[in-house]
Amino acid sequence: MGTLLDDAFSIDPLLSDEERDWAAKARTFATERILPVIEQDFEDKHFRREFVGELGALGLLGMHLKDEGCAGAGAVSYGLACLELEAADSGWRTFVSVQGSLAMSAISKFGSDEQKREWLPPMARGERIGCFALTEPGGGSDPAAMLTFAHRDGDDWVIRGSKRWIGLASIADVAVVWAATDDGVRGFLVPTSTPGFTATPIEGKLSMRASIQCDVVLDDVRVPSDALLPGARGLSGPFSCLNEARYGIVWGAMGAARSCLEAALGRATSREVFGKPIGANQLVQQKLANMFVEYEKGVLLALHLGRLKERGALTPTQISVGKLNSVREALAIASEARSILGGDGITNEFPVMRHLANLESVRTYEGTDEIHTLVLGRALTGLAAFA
């Protein structure tokens, strides 16, 4: 697939022509559009809104959905696109994930025919942006304790509450807002121009700096009855969307890992110390070999989960295995790459510290390491240890 690692490891023989085409399309965009500007964008905390329409034109937004205007690509094709985008920067895979796997998936899974027609085609084209408002300031790992509440008032719904770490909210056209009601947790499509809806970008981030995450306040936001997502009732609704996003992370984190491994390989063969390339030293080769093994295992696991997903056989527990493994190993690979790069590894001459910082966010959202560990513990023992 065109990287320094291909001589040692390539999954191309395991892919279809269509899957390779999607990967190449995403890689070309990442290489030609994102990489030339990402270091400065990260430094400047700048999100390039103009890229959104370009991603839509390539078919990458909601690409796995079968709805009108969406590409209808397979799970492996979507995963490969996530890998290639995150090899450039986690923020851009996150954008595709929030737009497609969260906001668009919620509308596709649970929306009415009218809601799908109104929102999905322009979102797929990148003409409209969506966000997914679930997490609250009091604790992201316990959505069952959400305080945001929606009550009936005549034919309308009135929503009051607050959300935190909501990607894209300040530039979104519509928010998928999850709120408790007298009938359990429900989802609502809230145009962000609605009075009482306020999104404020979170400042002081040392991670995901080329991306947007917000605090959201819903101050008696009034929406009509047809804003309700009719097919979603209870937490199974938002959880099913989160699983779509977690699946993308299984692939995406391996993209960040690949970028760091490539940087380490390049440095190991080009920098000379004590009269020879540092890659000629046994300890450096051991680091490279260990990094490569974990990268290869992570990609093969992602491919396995993708094939399961395409057969309709992928379980939430298996997604937890993938998310936990991919992010944990990507962080370890990035850390080892930094050590091989020496002091220069902390500069933006290389992408490694940026990936390290971003991966700390990826590690936290869509379920922390601890939550996924407990999911696996429950599956193994039959005993829940969440409380």
From TrEMBL:
<feature type="domain" description="Acyl-CoA dehydrogenase/oxidase C-terminal">
    <location>
        <begin position="234"/>
        <end position="380"/>
    </location>
</feature>
<keyword id="KW-0274">FAD</keyword>
<dbReference type="InterPro" id="IPR046373">
    <property type="entry name" value="Acyl-CoA_Oxase/DH_mid-dom_sf"/>
</dbReference>
<feature type="domain" description="Acyl-CoA oxidase/dehydrogenase middle">
    <location>
        <begin position="131"/>
        <end position="221"/>
    </location>
</feature>
<dbReference type="Pfam" id="PF02771">
    <property type="entry name" value="Acyl-CoA_dh_N"/>
</dbReference>
<dbReference type="GO" id="GO:0050660">
    <property type="term" value="F:flavin adenine dinucleotide binding"/>
</dbReference>
<dbReference type="GO" id="GO:0004361">
    <property type="term" value="F:glutaryl-CoA dehydrogenase activity"/>
</dbReference>
<comment type="pathway">
    <text>Amino-acid metabolism; tryptophan metabolism.</text>
</comment>
<comment type="pathway">
    <text>Amino-acid metabolism; lysine degradation.</text>
</comment>
<dbReference type="InterPro" id="IPR009100">
    <property type="entry name" value="AcylCoA_DH/oxidase_NM_dom_sf"/>
</dbReference>
<keyword id="KW-0809">Transit peptide</keyword>
<dbReference type="GO" id="GO:0046949">
    <property type="term" value="P:fatty-acyl-CoA biosynthetic process"/>
</dbReference>
<dbReference type="Pfam" id="PF02770">
    <property type="entry name" value="Acyl-CoA_dh_M"/>
</dbReference>
<dbReference type="InterPro" id="IPR037069">
    <property type="entry name" value="AcylCoA_DH/ox_N_sf"/>
</dbReference>
<dbReference type="InterPro" id="IPR052033">
    <property type="entry name" value="Glutaryl-CoA_DH_mitochondrial"/>
</dbReference>
<dbReference type="GO" id="GO:0000062">
    <property type="term" value="F:fatty-acyl-CoA binding"/>
</dbReference>
<protein>
    <recommendedName>
        <fullName>glutaryl-CoA dehydrogenase (ETF)</fullName>
        <ecNumber>1.3.8.6</ecNumber>
    </recommendedName>
</protein>
<dbReference type="InterPro" id="IPR006089">
    <property type="entry name" value="Acyl-CoA_DH_CS"/>
</dbReference>
<dbReference type="Pfam" id="PF00441">
    <property type="entry name" value="Acyl-CoA_dh_1"/>
</dbReference>
<dbReference type="GO" id="GO:0033539">
    <property type="term" value="P:fatty acid beta-oxidation using acyl-CoA dehydrogenase"/>
</dbReference>
<keyword id="KW-0560">Oxidoreductase</keyword>
<dbReference type="InterPro" id="IPR036250">
    <property type="entry name" value="AcylCo_DH-like_C"/>
</dbReference>
<comment type="similarity">
    <text>Belongs to the acyl-CoA dehydrogenase family.</text>
</comment>
<dbReference type="InterPro" id="IPR013786">
    <property type="entry name" value="AcylCoA_DH/ox_N"/>
</dbReference>
<feature type="domain" description="Acyl-CoA dehydrogenase/oxidase N-terminal">
    <location>
        <begin position="16"/>
        <end position="127"/>
    </location>
</feature>
<dbReference type="InterPro" id="IPR006091">
    <property type="entry name" value="Acyl-CoA_Oxase/DH_mid-dom"/>
</dbReference>
<dbReference type="InterPro" id="IPR009075">
    <property type="entry name" value="AcylCo_DH/oxidase_C"/>
</dbReference>
<keyword id="KW-0285">Flavoprotein</keyword>
